[in-house]
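In the laboratory, one determines a bound structure by crystallizing the protein with its ligand and collecting diffraction data. In a computational setting the workflow is compressed into a single prediction: the sequence and the ligand go in, and a structural description comes out. We illustrate the idea with pyridoxal-5'-phosphate.
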Amino acid sequence: MLYLDHAAGGPVRREVLEAMAPFLTGRFGNPSSVHTVGEDIAGALEDARRRVAAVLAMRAGDIVFTSGGTEANNLAIAGIAIGARGRSPGHIVTTAVEHDSVLAVCRYLQRIHGYDIDILPVDDEGHVDPDSVARALRDDTVVVSVGYANNEVGTVQDVAGIVRAAASVPVHVDAVQAAGWLPLAGTGASALSIAGHKIGAPQGIGLLAVRGRIPLEPVLHGGGQERGRRSGTQNVAGAVGLAVALELAERDRPGAVARATAARDAFTRRVLDTVTGAHVTGDPTRRLPGLASFTFSATSGEAVLLELERRGVVTSSGSACAAGHDEPSHVLTAMGRDADDARTAIRFSFDRAAPPDAAALARAVADAVAAVRSGS
Ligand SMILES: Cc1ncc(COP(=O)(O)O)c(C=O)c1O
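The predicted complex, in structure-token form:
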């Protein structure tokens, strides 16, 4: 089987598993306990915090470990918004192509707390114009939230331009898909979300890095762990694994980018040459190296997926979270695709270490699309 759904999640790296193993067995305990066992575990947690902060060029105190990307995005947006305004609602700016974990918490803040939300449009390749961010700002804007790289179409946003446009308003960057492919240090973001399971750490660990000067209201309330910003006993093994995974992803990034870009471009060329009615979705060049995405006219994405799986290729029709609903992708419709066209989308997302053979994969795609079109 050829697994090409790494944007949804990949395997845990061996080095990560080895680093985590002691904390799942002999080095157990609660990092908040005051005895020496607890101190040992707390030391490991703080070491993991320093290591991830170093990769992100942030301070250790800026790192809040979370259960993953969804929690990091919720904490960033609700935490910064409520931290800034208390009980008086303000204004939030985001874009129409964000992950549901961003859009849904914005809608929640609007519905329950009375925030105003501006959801900025994107162009037909999925870019948001930094000038539109500047134009949307108001005196009561508390946070701008933008994805670094889109999870469905791979388009990379001009984060530096958006940070400049936002001026003194904090910018939260959802870097869940960018980690391991794009530089994470020096974006100028005030807050950054990462999810472990996209970079070789397990599911159930992630982080929000948020610059210390920004007041952050917690979303989870309880024992006051993570300096009061995220209560709940920490996932120490996960944090240790995330630190190793992030360091390795950063170390391996240049090679991964070169390998994946070559494979993605060769695969895309072959698909466009051999499959009529195939169109790339997203920016053809300023996109994630390991993500190729298309629509195939006169097909259904779900049917092509099944035909691909019969040929040993496992991939997805867009984001894993949206899979299973019949709703067309909000990302593609925001990019101007009509609902029927959006239902023909397929996303191929590669392994960093071993991208697929472009020619063989393109043949499988051509066969699968032909099978769907002929109704066989
Ligand atoms: C861009 C983006 N943000 C957030 C998330 C949510 O992360 P998690 O699955 O760790 O909750 C995902 C997951 O696919 C994603 O792609």
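Residues 253-374 form a domain with the Aspartate Aminotransferase, domain 1 fold (CATH 3.90.1150.10). Keep in mind that any predicted model is a hypothesis to be tested, not a measurement.
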